[in-house]
Design goal:
The chain is an alpha/beta fold. It is 41% helix and 15% strand. The strands form four sheets. It has a seven-stranded mixed β-sheet, with helices on both faces. Helix 1 packs parallel to helix 14 (398-410), helix 4 crosses helix 11 and helix 7 runs parallel beside helix 8 (236-246). It starts with a helix and ends with a helix. It binds pyridoxal-5'-phosphate. Pyridoxal-5'-phosphate binds at residues 133-135, 138, 161-163, 221, 226, 254, 256-257, 280-281.
């Protein structure tokens, strides 16, 4: 259906259009190259479409304006970091108010008690700790799991992503062995020593990997979200819980993205019973924050380990973690923004977004499918939803991806780079969704026979 020749020509045209639309961003990028590695403050930022990233001037709600004065509908929302929208009032007020009273003390404020109790209510984990990112929450959870179990290995699912957690950036080879994932540069220890990798939805492989009882923790999302949306088979979570319990392995559920599906992610929705829950990204409305909650049993064992050795806790934490500003931001975000109503409203809009995408798929008879995960939507280049990380990776089509993202961007619609993911927030409107459908239709039409 997709005409590859047309796709090539159109992509070149879009690249030229991108250059002509963004002279001010280009100028800033050239200047930035004088002091920033690759011209950006974070290397992910060069992975957007175009020869250079667009520089942002200002944002509000579900829109932002770049330094060339172009306004965009933002469906990327900082790759989930701003799922609550840009600068929601409740968080803005709380952050400004707390900053006036002080940002960082290495001492708790009353907000921490409120936040701990609220996270406990949502995720059923009894004890909470905080970090400056979800990556760190995962790292700290793994350290505690190793200490508590006295085991060294970690198990992850093939093509997972949990932030830049060294052990998790590993791939499963067809012969069952493990290698560093392509792009995992400078790893401290070869992940084949630290990590076991099995395919998602493969209980047999999971049992085989856990039976030696050398795995400290399984780290997984309740639904894989970083290679499209890959759902668990019915019953897979029960098996996962049963096997981890049977073999004395700590189960860490990473709700960083899946907290877009309910006030307490899938732990709340599906009554999961992990030992640890981790999260971050939008939980403080864009202020860096991560959190990890522990079951009563795991928390008590962790405390014994921390107290058993003077100084051991020094390795777990960070000066700015759980600072007063962050805790005020989390309190406002949980208390006033991420409410039941937030999810009801934005899940309904996500459904409409996917209906729009589906209408384009139907009109041009494309072998694609859409999935929805709460306020998060995704379309993949596979006729049926994928079941494993490998299937999801095989469905990828970078040429097509790049063209669609670039052509959307050139028409004022921002999709999340690296995949066809869109997020709905309270400031996203039906017109924004309709604009995406209209643009997608136009750009698809230009490359089909
Ligand atoms: C599931 C999951 N966990 C953790 C992280 C790490 O988040 P951060 O990069 O904000 O530390 C990510 C990042 O995309 C993620 O997708």
């Amino acid at each position: 259906m997709i005409n590859r020749e047309k796709l090539k020509i159109k992509f070149e045209e879009e690249m030229k259009m991108f250059d002509s639309l963004h002279p001010a961003s280009k100028k800033m990028f050239d200047k930035a190259k004088e002091s920033l590695l690759q011209g950006v403050p974070l290397n992910w930022m060069v992975r957007w479409m175009g020869e250079f990233p667009i520089f942002v001037e200002k944002a509000e709600g579900a829109h932002f304006t770049d330094v060339d004065g172009i306004e965009y509908v933002d469906f990327c929302l900082g790759d989930t970091g701003s799922l609550v929208g840009h600068g929601p009032k409740a968080a803005k007020d709380a952050i400004l108010n707390q900053f006036e009273k002080g940002a960082s003390f290495m001492l708790p404020t009353e907000d921490a008690i409120w936040v701990g109790a609220e996270l406990k209510r949502r995720f059923k984990m009894k004890f909470w700790q905080f970090s400056t990112s979800a990556t760190d929450a995962n790292r700290f959870a793994l350290r505690l799991a190793r200490r508590v179990t006295g085991r060294s290995k970690v198990l992850v699912f093939n093509w997972c992503y949990h932030g830049t957690v060294d052990e998790s950036i590993a791939s499963l080879n067809p012969d069952g062995s493990v290698s560093p994932r392509k792009g995992n540069i400078g790893f401290p220890v070869d992940p084949s020593i630290t990590t076991k990798v099995v395919e998602w939805n493969d209980p047999k492989a999971l049992e085989e990997a856990l039976k030696d009882e050398d795995v400290a923790a399984v780290l997984c999302e309740p639904v894989m979200t970083n290679v499209g949306v890959v759902l668990p088979d019915p019953g897979f979570h029960d098996i996962l819980r049963k096997l981890t319990k049977k073999h004395g392995t700590v189960l860490i559920i990473d709700e960083t993205h899946t907290m877009c599906a309910s006030i307490g992610g899938f732990t709340y929705l599906d009554d999961l019973e992990p030992d640890v829950v981790t999260l971050g990204k939008f939980v403080a409305s864009g202020i860096p924050a991560g959190a990890y909650g522990m079951s009563e049993e795991f928390g008590k064992r962790a405390v014994i380990e921390i107290e058993s050795e003077f100084g051991v806790a020094k390795g777990i934490g960070g000066t700015l973690a759980a600072n007063a500003l962050t805790m005020a931001a989390i309190r406002a975000t949980l208390g006033e923004i991420l409410t039941e109503e937030f999810y009801v409203r934005n899940m309904a809009l996500a459904e409409k977004f996917n209906k729009g995408v589906q209408s384009v798929i139907d009109e041009f008879e494309l072998p694609w499918s859409t999935t929805q995960l709460g306020c998060r939507t995704e379309y993949v280049f596979s006729k049926t939803p994928t079941r494993t990380g490998t299937e999801a990776i095989e469905a990828k089509d970078n040429d097509l991806d790049w063209y669609l993202h670039l052509a959307c961007l050139n028409r004022g619609v921002i999709m999340t780079p690296f995949h066809n993911m869109a997020l709905m927030t309270t400031a996203t409107t039906q017109e924004d969704v309709d604009k995406h459908t209209h643009v997608l239709r136009e750009v698809v039409k230009s490359i089909v026979d």
